[in-house]
Amino acid sequence: MSLVEHSLRSERGLTLVELLIVMVLAGLIIGATWTIMTGAWGAWGRTSTAAALDMQSEAGLAAISSKMRMASSVDVADPQNPVIKVQGHLGETVYSFELEGTTLRMITTVPGGSSTTAPVAQDVSFIQVVETAYSGAYTISIACERSGASKTASTQVTVRR
């Protein structure tokens, strides 16, 4: 056996076939990992959007219903912009709710006339307060939307007079 033949047989390394097998296996592993991760990211995005919409709709309901429970009067002539009046020791405080774009805002006017505005909920697409058949009882409905997902929440409130 010649010196060249002997050195070729004793060389260590990968053959082309072995290298191709390693590349195919690595590609399969990377592809499977990518598929799992993109599915997980999509599920996380849908879940976090749903949770955020749920929190926003509940925040809007809580803000309106808490004021309505204390109300001395409720004006729902415009169901999308309810006005709630609460009689206190120093006079009457007026809470009005307005949908500005997708932000539900509460405007508080205290005795003496000064007022403040605060956002109550985001991503709101619809709000409605409707008086029910029972005196002093109202149904509040709020819908929130973001990125194609939506959440509608409603509750019934009875004014404590």
Keywords, separated by commas or semicolons:
single chain; 161 residues; alpha+beta; rod-shaped
Task: Describe this structure as you would to a colleague.
Strand 2 and strand 3 form a beta hairpin. The chain starts with a helix and ends with a strand. The longest helix has 54 residues, at 16-69. The chain is rod-shaped and about 110 Å long. The protein contains two helices and eight strands, in the order ααββββββββ. It has 161 residues and is of the alpha+beta class. The protein has a domain at 56-158. The relative contact order is 0.15. It has helices spanning 3-10, 16-69, and strands at 73-75, 83-88, 91-100, 103-109, 115-121, 124-131, 137-146, 149-158. A five-stranded antiparallel β-sheet has the order 1-2-3-4-5, with helices on one face. A three-stranded antiparallel β-sheet has the order 6-7-8, covered by helices on one side. The mean pLDDT is 88.
SSE inventory with pairings:
Layout: H1 3-10, H2 16-69, E1 73-75, E2 83-88, E3 91-100, E4 103-109, E5 115-121, E6 124-131, E7 137-146, E8 149-158
Antiparallel strand pairs: 1-2, 2-3, 3-4, 4-5, 6-7, 7-8
String of helices and strands: HHEEEEEEEE
Structural class: alpha+beta
Percent of residues in beta strands: 35-45%
| SS field, number of helical segments | 2
Give the strand line-up of the largest sheet: 1-2-3-4-5
- Please estimate the helix content: 25-40%
On the 0-100 scale, what is the average pLDDT?
Answer: 88
> Poorly predicted ranges (pLDDT <50, ≥5 residues)?
none
What is the total tally of β strands?
Answer: 8
Major beta sheet summary: 5 strands, antiparallel
Give the radius of gyration.
32 Å
**Cα separation of the termini:** 110 Å
| Backbone shape | rod-shaped
